[in-house]
Amino acid sequence: MIRSVLTAINLSLACPAQAEISFEQTDEETLAFVEGNVLGIFYHELGHALIDVMGLPIFGQEEDAADVLSIFLIDAFYEEESAVQLAYDAAFGFLGEADAVEEIAFWDVHGPDMQRYFNTVCLFYGANPEEREDVAADLGLPEERAAYCPDEYDQAAQSWGGVLDEIMDSSGAETFVLGEVTVETDGGRLTKDVVAQEIAALNGEFKLPQTLTVSVIPCGEANAYYDPEAVEIVMCTEFADVLANMAPDF
C-alpha cells in the first residue's frame, strides 16, 4: 500500500480488523446492511478513481465529491424500493461511524460523519422529493435543509451526470477489471461477490479511457482506498465484519 499517496483519499473508517463473523448465521437485514454499505463504499472509491482517470477538476474536498457520486449512483442505478433501502443503509453506516468516534477530527480530509449523514439524506431526498418525503422525515432531515436539497441534487446531476455521459458505452468493453482476489472469510466472499457483480454491470454501461482494476484482499484493517499509481481500487476483506458489528438493531 502506498500510504503517503493514499492518506488524503482513503475511506475514513480505517480500524483494526475485528473477529471473523459467520455470515451463514447472520440475519437477512444485517446481511443487506453489509452489502449495501460495501456497495456504497465501492461507489465512493469509484468517485476517486474517476476523478483521477478522467482528470476532473474538483472545487472543494475530493471526499465530498466521492460521497456525492456514491448516493447519485444509488439513485440512478436502482429501482425505487432498492434505492431507498440502499440509501437507508448508507445513512445508517455514517451514524454507526459517528457513534464509534469518541472525538471529531476536524483536521481530517473527510467531513464529520453526522454531516456526511445529512448530506447523504439530503441528496437522496432531493433526487425525488415528491416520493421521498417520508424518507426525509424518517431520517430526521430538517425542513430548513430539505428546502435546498432538490437544488443540491441538480448540481450533482450536472457535474457527475455529465461525467457518466462522457464514458457511456454499451459495447461491453471491459475497462473495469477484477484484479487480485484473496478471500478466506465469509466477509471477504461477500465483498468479492458484490464487487464482481458491480464490475460486470459497469462494463455493460461504461468504458473508461484506461483500465481500472478492483482488488479484494486482506489489509490487516477495515479499509478501502484508491491507489492512483496502480489505477486500482482496493476493497479490504475485513470491512464486512466491521460493518456487521456496526449494523443497527433491526
TrEMBL record:
Read off the InterPro entries from this record: DUF4344 (IPR025644)
Pfam families the record matches: DUF4344
The alphabetized UniProt keywords are: Signal
The positions making up the signal sequence are 1-19
Name recorded for this polypeptide:
Metallopeptidase
Lineage of producing organism: Bacteria, Pseudomonadati, Pseudomonadota, Alphaproteobacteria, Rhodobacterales
Looking at the keywords, is Signal present? Answer: yes
